[in-house]
Amino acid sequence: MTELAERITGLVGALRAHGVPIGTGETVDAARAVEALGLADRERLREGLAATLLHGPGQRAVFDPVFDLYFPRGVGGPDGGPGDREELRDRLARALAADDRALMARLAVEAVDGFGGYGSSPGSDGFSAYQTLERLRPQTLLARVRADVRGGRGSGAGFADRLLDDEIRRRIEEFRRLVGAEARRRVAERRGREEIARRGVLPTADRVDFLYANRTQLAELRRTVQPLARKLATRLAARRRRAARGTVDLRRTLRSSLSTGGVPMRPVLRRRRPVRPELVLLCDVSGSVSGFSDFTMLLVQALHDQFSKIRVFAFVNRLDEVTALLGHGRADPEGLGARIHAEATLTGWHGSSDYGMALGEFAERYGEAVGPRTTVFVLGDARTNMSDPNLAAVREIAGRARRVYWLNPEPRAQWGTGDSAAPAYAGLVEMHECRTARQLGALVARLLPV
Amino acid sequence: MFTSVDDVAARLAETGYLASPAVATTVFLAGRLGKPLLVEGPAGVGKTELAKAVAQVAGARLVRLQCYEGVDESRALYEWNHAKQLLRISAGRDESWDETRTDIFSEEFLLPRPLLTAIRGDEPTVLLIDETDKADVEMEGLLLEVLSDFQITVPELGTVTATRRPFVVLTSNAGRELSEALRRRCLFLHIGFPEEELERRIVRLKVPGLGAALAESVVRVVGALRAMDLRKAPSVAETVDWARTLLALGAGTLDETVVRDTLGVILKHQDDIQKAAAKLDLDAL
User: Fold this and answer.
1) What is d(CA B175, CA B191) in angstroms, rounded to the nearest whole number?
2) Is some CB atom of chain A closer than 8 A to the CB atom of B224?
3) What is the dihedral sign for C-alpha B188, B192, B197, B199?
């Protein structure tokens, strides 16, 4: 196998490991693309490989860093010794002012080489983007760059100049990204790119674990709500269409066959009354699982026209209805959690979640919300903080509802450890592990009633 | 079709389509590998225009299939001309049924629709399947045979295979998730919002009368709006519209009043307008 072919298959392998489905046919296409494009222009190569290997825009976030590892910009560090910090900051300020991408990329290379290295013995040394940015502090250049740009333009500061700060911030953000990519590349040279491609590249948003997602990942996740909801809506609509076809109504078929002498020429189908299901959501919104609940609530809200009625209840240890806060058109994903906490009574005299209390309160106060057409989803990790799980309340809800599903963001292996009452609840209602947006999408598509 | 990526970019530019490096590279590959090109992206970034521009530079005829909910085989592939068939049957009274039957299912009574038209021709063809996401899932199954083997099976006539492969462009706004099988058969291209520099060139090209300084301000403001997380971010088409509006108004530079009065050209939702006005420090509307 030639070195290039090995590189392409390595790239494909790394992408597959991150959940990008790539078949052999696409790999062959990628190789043909490389042949057609040549290796001279790296950005063309990137676009060509992306076009042949990827199938959707979401995969690009994984592809770009992996590509940077397998087809690096160069090898080793820059020529010449480490420069002076102030001098590098000067040049960076000029590059930012001119919005010169090529220069910014070169400076990122120099910066990581000069300020990102740590350790001295082989095996424990490496390069850190964090350390580079800590020493270089590009964010403090804002005022200087602004003055530079203004100075260069002369006095005629127009309307667009009020956008300048945001633009400079975006350029600095771009530089930070470049430093990150460069540090990964340098580390990959030492440790082998397979390992870095596996561990150093963030998974796509829909595969991030709800419980461990950071702020930016959660924000990214919220942005996937609309597309995911659209996808689910088409799937539900198709299922509904199929289900509406119905079965033969024997009695009416025979009745109508009287005019043809008892020969049933035309089968009469049983008419279905299209009933949109009702949905009740019980969400644990305590700190530990709030990301999961927020996302699920948003998803259900985006799906609202698929149901005749949705009611959403949030709880920590007291329970309150929050349907109104999720009302149509009030989709402000950022502030949802905060709004729920501000406007609903969710906590009593302590701040940790209490499933027994909350479920009991629901059965007692909102029992009428659950009827034979209602599907109930309970969202939470079933960690009761050692209090009574109140299985009777769950039994009561399950008895009244059409179906009850419990979605648990914890890995199945952890159910029942510590204060988790998951096995006890799972004995009464169907409980599913639901750790990522991808899993949630699949579950919702499967579990939602037609 | 094209000799190199640069060739693609240069020739598309001649028709007034300024291609980003990603677009030029992918178009070149689609021609070279002979694969259909699936173009996704927000509305108004030039997906359909791309197909038209490619047809123009290649000197090819453009066959367009506009998808919509309920588009079916008889709209996409072919139809039998029933009226003509009936005429034929009633005209030839003295021949046997077998003769008539073989006759009425021949080329003469076939009405080719876009897909069959694109495959049968001998001249260079660009087949544009527009807004694929609007069509039903069944339609995708139909496209699979066409896109992988460039052939169509008409039960009465047999299989029609393309003698000359058309250059296929499928567009989608991602309104519905296209099937994995369809995606696998295509090269994938996502056209997003262009880089600032490219958008400036597009604006200058489409609105020649606009001054360089004003064009730059326009693009910067649009860029800022896109970063704002609005319900409908302005696309290139809107940038160009706005530039035209400013030119028509005779605005020499951007100032608060002009922006406030014309914000409706670039933003299509009232709450977006309010949000943008607040962020841009415009006075209350």
Assistant:
1) 15
2) yes
3) positive
Cβ proximity of A265 and A257 under 8 Å:
yes
Helix/strand/coil for B89: helix
Alpha-carbon distance of A4 to A115, in angstroms, equals 32
- Nearest CB to B176: which of A26, A55, A230? A230
Closest residue to A158, CB basis, from B188, B217, B280: B217
* Distances from the Cα of B240 to the Cα of A196, B200, B208, angstroms: 43, 10, 11
What is the CB-side half-sphere exposure of residue A106 using CA atoms within 13 A? 12
Residue A123: pLDDT band (50, 70, 90) is low
Q: What angle do CA A343, A348, A350 make, to 5 degrees?
A: 115
Nearest of A75, A79, A144, A157 to residue A114 by alpha carbon = A79
**Cα A48 from chain centre:** 26
If we measure between CA atoms, which residue out of A34, A14, A3, A52 comes closest to residue A184? A14
- Give ipTM to 2 decimals: 0.88
Strands (E) across A43-120 are located at: 117-118
Measure CB to CB from residue A51 to each of B29, B176, B180 and give the nearest one: B29
d(CA A44, CA B183) in angstroms, rounded, equals 21
Q: Answer whether residue B9 shows pLDDT above 90.
A: yes
Q: Which two tokens stand for residue A308?
A: 């005749």
* DSSP secondary structure code for residue B1 in this structure: -
Gap between the Cα atoms of A276 and A240, Å rounded: 10
pLDDT tens digits, residue range A53-83?
998 887 888 898 889 888 887 777 776 656 6
Please list every residue in chain B whose beta carbon sits closer than 8 Å to the beta carbon of residue A158: 213, 217, 253-255
SS3 category, A154: coil
Check pLDDT > 60 for residue A276. yes
- Rounded Cα distance between A8 and B234, Å, is 37
pLDDT level of residue A121 (50, 70, 90 thresholds):
low
- Reduce the DSSP state of residue A421 to 3 states and report it: coil
Alpha-carbon distance of B237 to B199, in angstroms, equals 10
pLDDT band at A127 (very low <50, low <70, confident <90, very high): confident
B30: distance to nearest CA of chain A, Å? 9
CA distance linking residue B223 with residue B199, whole number of Å:
10
pLDDT interval class at B129 (50, 70, 90) = very high
Question: Cβ contacts (< 8 Å) between A44 and chain B: which residues?
Answer: 5, 21, 25
Under an 8 A CB cutoff, do B217 and A160 touch?
yes
pLDDT tens-digit series, residues B141-169: 888 888 888 888 888 888 888 888 899 99
Nearest to A189, CA basis, from A122, A234, A139 = A122
- Between the ranges A204-213, B40-49, B252-261, B276-285, where is the mean pLDDT highest? B40-49
Q: Which pLDDT score, from 0 to 100, does residue A80 have? A: 61
Pick from A156-160, A290-294, B265-269: least confident: A156-160
* A229 contacts on B by Cβ (under 8 Å): none
Phi, psi of B149, rounded to the nearest 5 degrees: -115, -5
pLDDT tier, A120 (very low <50, low <70, confident <90, very high otherwise): low
In terms of Cα–Cα distance, which of B265, B254, B259 is closest to B278? Answer: B259
Looking at chain B, the number of H-run helices and the number of E-run strands are 14, 9
- What is the predicted pLDDT for the residue at B284? 45
B61-66 and B125-130: which strand pairing?
A: parallel
Contacts of B5 (CB under 8 A, 6+ apart): A37, A41, A44, B21, B24, B25, B28
Q: Which residues of B touch A23 (CB under 8 A)?
A: 184
Residue among B275, B216, B186, B46 at smallest CA distance from A161: B216
Tell whether the torsion through CA atoms of A210, A213, A215 and A216 is positive or negative. Answer: negative
Residue A244 has pLDDT above 70, yes or no: no
